[in-house]
Amino acid sequence: MTHVLDPDAPAAANPPRREPPAPYRDVTRSDAAFRAFLHGLPGVDQVGAESRVAVLGTRSIKTTAKAWAIDTAISMVDLTTLEGADTPGRVRSLAAKARRPDPGDPTTPPVAAVCVYGDLAGVAKEALTGTGISVAAVATAFPSGRASRAVKLADVRDAVANGADEIDMVIDRGAFLAGRHLDVFDEIVAVKEACGDAHLKVILETGELVTLDNVRRASWLAMLAGGDFIKTSTGKVSPAATLPVCLVMLEAVRDFRAATGRQVGVKPAGGIRTTKDAIKHLVLVNEVAGPEWLSPDWFRFGASSLLNDLLLQRQKLRTGHYSGPDHVSVD
């Protein structure tokens, strides 16, 4: 079966429709069937979700475990700059920090990726060559997603051509909230095809989805469409990443793997600024999804200022005292 993704695009831009994993293929045959499936997912008890994250957030993390958690969190950071004033020089500076987060301590692990706008992906790629650090690029008319599908796909192809290893796309929240779930599904499928070998992170912009039930539905939609990661937010909308939202997304990836055998990653982004915040997320990952997700391959933090606090706390554990404010660079 084929499905026209963009009727004005050349034939090569309209690949055969990617089928979701069995036993979910039939649910994407029509909007009505897809809507019935998504609205048939178990409802989320918001009070229960908030209570659970509150309890998990009180876990006491001792010194050895804290040291492990800090290094693990550093290795999971997508070090990000997404400003209109970004320059090649700023991206190169960020890449240098990604490679050696603490120049005075070579035992500090590098971060997972540097995340930039697609037109600067080539600069990041050149600066990170040979490091194993990925280049992530936002695309699909980030952060609003308000553009034609042809423009969005061109945005993705341009970022990949510039050297992006990972694409962070935004879903059409208006279409999702209007109940046009199949339109959102087909757009993610088309973006996944345009990514080629690049991994796809699907940004749900959970602050605009209003309810945790919608977060669960959007998570399943994105995974069925082939997303490699589901991501909370662009960081441009408040609220961004919250622990209850992350809980629901972790439950979704856990249940999706149990149902299909395919593992999908999770990336909270926006508002995670302190080591305490990061550790709370790692506890949540371990308790909800399981230790298999405690890896940069399956869990990331989209952040800019978080890395500095992780470095300061790491220095405190290593030396017994906090360094001065000049110990970390100002991003």
TrEMBL record:
One biological process term in Gene Ontology: deoxyribonucleotide catabolic process
Catalytic activity annotation: 2-deoxy-D-ribose 5-phosphate = D-glyceraldehyde 3-phosphate + acetaldehyde
Matching InterPro entries: Aldolase_TIM, DeoC, DeoC/FbaB/LacD_aldolase
Annotated keywords: Lyase, Schiff base
GO CC annotation: cytoplasm
Annotated region (Disordered), positions in chain: 1-25
Pathway: Carbohydrate degradation; 2-deoxy-D-ribose 1-phosphate degradation; D-glyceraldehyde 3-phosphate and acetaldehyde from 2-deoxy-alpha-D-ribose 1-phosphate: step 2/2
EC number from the UniProt entry: 4.1.2.4
Listed GO MF terms: deoxyribose-phosphate aldolase activity
Pfam families linked to this entry: DeoC
The family this protein is said to belong to: Belongs to the DeoC/FbaB aldolase family. DeoC type 2 subfamily.
Name the UniProt record assigns to this protein: Deoxyribose-phosphate aldolase
Organism per entry: Geodermatophilus poikilotrophus
Record lineage: Bacteria, Bacillati, Actinomycetota, Actinomycetes, Geodermatophilales
